[in-house]
Amino acid sequence: MENIVIPDGYESALDIKQTEVAIKQVKDFFERELAVQLNLTRVSAPLFVTPESGLNDNLNGTERPVSFGVKEQNETRFEIVHSLAKWKRHALGRYGFNQGEGLYTDMNAIRRDEDTDNLHSIFVDQWDWEKIISKQERNIETLKETVKSVYEALRVTEKYISQKYDYIETYLPEEITFISSQELEDKYPELTPKERENKAAREYGAVFITQIGGPLKSGEKHDGRAPDYDDWNLNGDIIVYYPILDIALELSSMGIRVDEETLKEQLEMSGCMDRAQLPFQKALLEGKLPLTIGGGIGQSRICMFYLRKAHIGEVQSSVWPQEVLDYAQDKGVVLL
């Protein structure tokens, strides 16, 4: 129960039905705005893939995917996706997208090893997006301009929802601040990565923390990243300050994806060279996949943020330990 905190005096301004209506408004508006900002086309995406395809996201490398056998295919095993980070890149090439064009999709996942709290659930829903770029665009300037476009979609959506509901005041600053994970460690060496994020979010309101995945000067990582999708020098997280819980709230993780060289380097650093023989990774090493930038944006996260909810279970239907359900009920918080 120490991971769940409902602030004293918290009360949702919307009942269940009103909340469901507001969730639809948030999702519809933001989805359209994101597509316009990044020139994206919506596509359908898989809920499960075969382990042998190499298309599942390995996240930090320790999470166990939910898997099942299919009777029709002689009990062939399939895995519920953790995210669509690799599948999107494969799809861009297969569907015939051109440079400057991209796709987005609804991604639903089950992360059975997730430690749940106010922000985390074993059910994950997000918009996964991916866009083709050129070799020359694989740089920090491209990353920053794309982050600014995503942030603008977030900021415009907050303004829209604040006009719909008079209890909502705007939190997001006009501009997002860029800071590297190493700069944060240098600035706050005595703090944990999460504590550094909280400091930065309170100071700036909205930050994009760059270069996540590789070891810092201390030898520790700011956070884990799979070695075969983001380039660890050209990625990061959009994090905003959330006054309701007085915390840093991650809304999006994104980055320029690995090319042949960085994939090989990061697989070697992670001791995962065996993955080089998987179909997706092999195709990338052979230069058969487009160069891309992409990311994921939490659907429940932004609904929680815009509607000023204290717990993610107020905007998504998942499963929770009984003590969490009892605690929420005692606090007058309705979990869907």
From TrEMBL:
<feature type="domain" description="Aminoacyl-transfer RNA synthetases class-II family profile">
    <location>
        <begin position="26"/>
        <end position="321"/>
    </location>
</feature>
<comment type="similarity">
    <text>Belongs to the class-II aminoacyl-tRNA synthetase family. AsnA subfamily.</text>
</comment>
<dbReference type="Pfam" id="PF03590">
    <property type="entry name" value="AsnA"/>
</dbReference>
<dbReference type="GO" id="GO:0005829">
    <property type="term" value="C:cytosol"/>
</dbReference>
<keyword id="KW-0028">Amino-acid biosynthesis</keyword>
<dbReference type="InterPro" id="IPR006195">
    <property type="entry name" value="aa-tRNA-synth_II"/>
</dbReference>
<dbReference type="GO" id="GO:0005524">
    <property type="term" value="F:ATP binding"/>
</dbReference>
<keyword id="KW-0436">Ligase</keyword>
<dbReference type="GO" id="GO:0016740">
    <property type="term" value="F:transferase activity"/>
</dbReference>
<protein>
    <recommendedName>
        <fullName>Aspartate--ammonia ligase</fullName>
        <ecNumber>6.3.1.1</ecNumber>
    </recommendedName>
</protein>
<dbReference type="GO" id="GO:0004071">
    <property type="term" value="F:aspartate-ammonia ligase activity"/>
</dbReference>
<dbReference type="GO" id="GO:0070981">
    <property type="term" value="P:L-asparagine biosynthetic process"/>
</dbReference>
<comment type="pathway">
    <text>Amino-acid biosynthesis; L-asparagine biosynthesis; L-asparagine from L-aspartate (ammonia route): step 1/1.</text>
</comment>
<keyword id="KW-0061">Asparagine biosynthesis</keyword>
<keyword id="KW-0963">Cytoplasm</keyword>
<keyword id="KW-0067">ATP-binding</keyword>
<dbReference type="InterPro" id="IPR045864">
    <property type="entry name" value="aa-tRNA-synth_II/BPL/LPL"/>
</dbReference>
<dbReference type="InterPro" id="IPR004618">
    <property type="entry name" value="AsnA"/>
</dbReference>
<dbReference type="GO" id="GO:0140096">
    <property type="term" value="F:catalytic activity, acting on a protein"/>
</dbReference>
<keyword id="KW-0547">Nucleotide-binding</keyword>
